[in-house]
Amino acid sequence: LFDNSGNYADSLKFSLTLNLTSSRNIGIHDIGNLAFTLSNLGRYGLGEGSICPAGGRGFRFPKSGKDNLFEGAFLIGKSRTQVVDAARDGTGKFSKGDFVPLGDFDITAPGKISDQDGIGVFSDSGGINPIGLEIEQRSFAFANPPDDDYIILEFTLRNKTADTLKGIYPGLFFDWDISLSSPVDDRVMRDTVEGIPIAYQY
User: Fold this and answer.
1) Which stretches of the chain are assigned E, i.e. beta strand?
2) What is the pLDDT of residues 49-83, one digit of tens each?
3) Cα 85 from Cα 76, distance rounded (Å)
């Protein structure tokens, strides 16, 4: 440091820490008849009017239609005191989430498996009581019938601890609003013949 006359000199020591982890980003599958936004931190939808608007298109079927997803999140539990997720907190308010991106969420078109292959990796290290997992999320979307009306999500969980982990329960949470402006008449059921959940407007 020098004063205006140039007669004084001193030194100042400081440290600078750079966070080199990947930024949080989104990708949109839209090659088939629907549009669905995914992220590299376990959140889905992220459209305007959702709990976490982040430039996404939400979930639209058909893809030219309205967004039908208020909130979507990945979650994993090991016990009542060890749950990590990307959903709103217990008060119903949006929180930062427990997942930390370990790379960008990328969509490649054409992909090796589908017309749009997506991949993102995140860890649960942002949680208050993390389990010690790395989650690889892959997604696949197709352009042509009969496979253009759905998207496949595939998750690989990697144990990053020295312990053997048992009793891990992963899941997906979706708060559907069909359409987004009228949540009071939404219904969810499970088709026991096909083994799939169905969300619809009553």
Assistant:
1) 26-29, 35-39, 43-44, 59-60, 69-79, 82-85, 100-101, 106-108, 116-123, 133-141, 151-159, 169-176, 186-191, 196-201
2) 898 899 999 999 999 999 999 999 999 999 999 99
3) 6
